[in-house]
Amino acid sequence: MIGGEIKVEKINKSFGNFQVLKDINLQIKKGEFFSLLGPSGCGKTTLLRIIAGFEYPSDGILYLDGKDILGVPSNKRHVNTVFQNYALFPHLTVFENVAFPLRLKKYKESEIKKKVEEYLDLVRLNSHKKKYPSQLSGGQKQRVSIARALINEPSVLLLDEPLSALDAKLRQQLLIELDTIHDKVGITFVYVTHDQQEALSVSDRIAVMKDGVILQIGTPYEIYESPVNMFVADFIGESNLTTGKVVSVNEDKIVKINTEEHGELYTYLDKPVQVGDTLKVTIRPEKIRIATKKPENIPPNTNVLVGYVDELIYTGSETSYFVKIAQKNVFRVFKQHIVYFMDENPIKWKDEVYIWWYANDGFTVEVTK
């Protein structure tokens, strides 16, 4: 299979007076695993349905491999869709569900048998081919749905929250399988999800959407480490926020800001700023260190604050600390349990603690002149 390239130009979509999509511009590369990520109601599923041909935009252009396909019916586009609710025929076996698209196209029985078994092998369900959907688990049903969509050999596979009906452990397992299938078949995947971890785990690139607008497009690393604004920073994982006025910018691109809650702090110059500007800076919880003793031999421009543990959550692999600073702001800190010592005194609730992070661990998400 060869993946298709999708290009969306200035697409708008309204239902009555409500505008769902606002001037969407997007290019998805051949063979890419591309995710549309955002909260419920942001327009991601509507955009997917426009690509599939189930909805038509109010205006704009949609290209597949350089050809405008807006006037092409959904069944004539080289695009297939995997739905959240599986959409399997309950009266047909696994084999017949997957064979259905080929029977519509009048394939020979020998060719149907060969291709169905090939795709059932791909999703590891050949041993279940005589079963009916009611005899399958949720994960198995979704794999049948994926095999049926792929047997048409589309250039683009659209996946509309395909794992949301599954429990967390099964969802993670099927996500890995989905990524493996993508690597094997090599076609373009467009994946709709509201789950940040799903998108970060498998995507080549992600488009973060809110209120019908694409806020940022980038690799998982770019989206997580360099969010363009506060919404993206807060939506993708956990984040701490502090606000302050720029006091100085030194030659090493270190910005000193003065905050009401914590006095002077340091951050990295990742956006053009001037003395007097107000910055909103985010710090990821895993970037912050925590200890009951004041840190020694730390580099210059390191931010050090003292507070107490207001709450803690132990999850096995890590502990999440909520540290209250000066009875005001609360910082969330993740401490991974890499090494465990039987005689170690763990940080407890109400303990006084020091937290610290380096200047280049902060990221500016908003500048006000």
Account of the protein in words:
The protein is α+β, with helices and mostly antiparallel strands and 369 residues long. It has 2 domains: 6-235, P-loop containing nucleotide triphosphate hydrolases (Rossmann fold), CATH 3.40.50.300; 240-368, OB fold (Dihydrolipoamide Acetyltransferase, E2P) (Beta Barrel). It has 8 helices and 20 strands. It has helices spanning 44-52, 94-104, 109-122, 138-150, 168-185, 196-202, 220-225, 230-235; strands spanning 6-15, 18-28, 33-37, 59-64, 67-68, 79-82, 156-160, 188-193, 205-210, 213-218, 240-249, 254-259, 263-268, 278-283, 289-291, 302-314, 318-325, 329-336, 352-358, 362-368. A 6-stranded mixed beta sheet has the order 6-7-8-3-9-10, sandwiched between helices. It has a 5-stranded antiparallel beta sheet with strand order 13-12-11-14-20. It has a 5-stranded antiparallel beta sheet with strand order 15-19-16-17-18, with no helix packed on it. Strand 12 (254-259) and strand 13 (263-268) form a beta hairpin. Helix 2 (94-104) packs parallel to helix 4 (138-150) and helix 3 crosses helix 4 (138-150). The radius of gyration is 25 Å and the shape is elongated. The mean pLDDT is 92.
Brief sketch in words of this structure:
The chain is of the alpha+beta class. It contains 8 helices and 20 strands.
Which key terms come to mind for this protein?
369 residues, 8 helices, 6-stranded mixed beta sheet, Rossmann fold, alpha+beta, 2 domains, single chain
Shape: elongated
Number of helices: 8
Q: Helix proportion of residues, in percent?
A: 10-25%
**Strand line-up across the major sheet:** 6-7-8-3-9-10
Report on the biggest sheet.
6 strands, mixed
End-to-end Cα distance = 51 Å
What is the mean pLDDT?
Answer: 92
Number of domains: 2
User: Mind telling me the CATH class of the largest domain?
Assistant: Alpha Beta
* Strand segment count: 20
Poorly predicted runs of 5 or more residues: none
Round the Cα radius of gyration to an integer and report it.
25 Å
Query: What is the annotated CATH architecture of the largest domain?
Result: 3-Layer(aba) Sandwich
CATH homology-level superfamily of the largest domain: P-loop containing nucleotide triphosphate hydrolases
